[in-house]
Amino acid sequence: MSHLKSLTLTVSPQQGARNPKLIRRQKMVDRLEEQLKLAQDPSFAPIVRRWKKTIAGPKVPVEIHKRVRPWWRMDGNGSLVLILRNGLKALELEKGKAAIVVGAQEQLGAVLETLIAAAKAGELDAALEAAGDAGGRGIPRAKRAA
Question: pLDDT for 98-117, tens place per residue?
Answer without folding.
Answer: 899 998 899 999 999 999 99
